[in-house]
Amino acid sequence: MSEATNLMSDVDMAKFLVNGYHLVQLDVAEDVNDSIALELDGLDSNPGDAITDVVPDLLQVLKHPKTHGALQSLLGSDYEIQSHRHWHCRPAGMGHMQWHQDGTNNRDRRPNRLLGLYYPRDVTEDMGPTIIVPGTQFRNAPTDRMATYTNIRGQIPLIVKAGTMAFAHYDLWHGTAANTSDAPRHMIKFLFRRTGDNKAPTWNHEADALNKPRDWNLLDKAEDAGNIMSFGNPLKVSQSDHYKERAIRQECWNYLMGNVDS
Amino acid sequence: MSDDPGSEPLRQRLLYLQARTPNVFSEILGLTQIEPIRGYRAEITATEQNWPYETVHEAIVDGWQIVQFPHLQAPFDDRDIDVIGYEFILQKMEAVCE
Fold this sequence. Notes:
The structure holds two protein chains of two kinds.
Chain A: H1 10-19, E1 21-25, H2 30-41, H3 51-54, H4 58-62, H5 65-75, E2 80-90, E3 97-100, E4 113-119, E5 130-132, E6 151-152, E7 156-157, E8 164-169, E9 174-176, E10 185-193, H6 225-231, H7 239-256
Antiparallel strand pairs in A: 1-8, 2-10, 3-9, 4-8, 4-10, 5-7, 5-9
Chain B: E1 10-19, E2 28-34, H1 56-61, E3 65-68, E4 86-95
Antiparallel strand pairs in B: 1-2, 1-4, 3-4
């Protein structure tokens, strides 16, 4: 597999800037996912950042060409895999987790920091999937202020196959449903960071990606980066918020193109 | 405790609706229903959302009363975005049998 085939396309990048996440199915050997899940089943304490020492097969996930391709696309060629990582286990019977953004309210609209959420086992609807709210990555809201939200139109449960890595903008709102199954749900969270500004696009970019005629019939359903950037409104927010989001997306796109002052 | 709801004191049911705009006819983007029952929890769910109302107005028609309108006096600029929608808080006072 050539390195270029693992890079994101213009459409992928536009979808990421609109929705704040990008899913990758890692084709590691099936027994690697199984082996990781079984090792996690057997842990009796959380090793914190040392999870990759305790479960070294996780390094295959971090070093996978598709992981590298997505990270290079989103964070530039010199991205950093940060030392913090965490095993998030939702045991059978565990309740839900409220909406939150990670960290404090020092937010960064640019795609400079990513969460990588790896699931070593199939996640079903009843296993307490992570739930994300596409399009919330530019919203700066104290987690306390989210406490009166429960279900939000457009929220997406990450019901995924074993070996899925979900890359999410660090500020994307997320929570977790209750695990009503009789199996634990495992997720390993990794953190990734940009180390330098782009001088040029670092994904599979075509020069006219945003300059094609708009499709006013398909709107954001068209597989066209310009349409997606212009019309995407996953939360169906008001016109004033939508216009602000569009401006922020365009700033991010310009930044990723290498226009540092945008 | 009686099984007859008519003999019970009224309790406050709450409905938090985050609407697309401050207009009661605009589409709801978020919904939280709080029932006045011990141990009740409002939970984020992974299942498909089937909400009883599409707008705040539909909830009013169903007997809910608005007890707090969205605050519109907060400072704003033309660049930043924060919470989702405009929050209405509604109540229904009803007898509840547990």
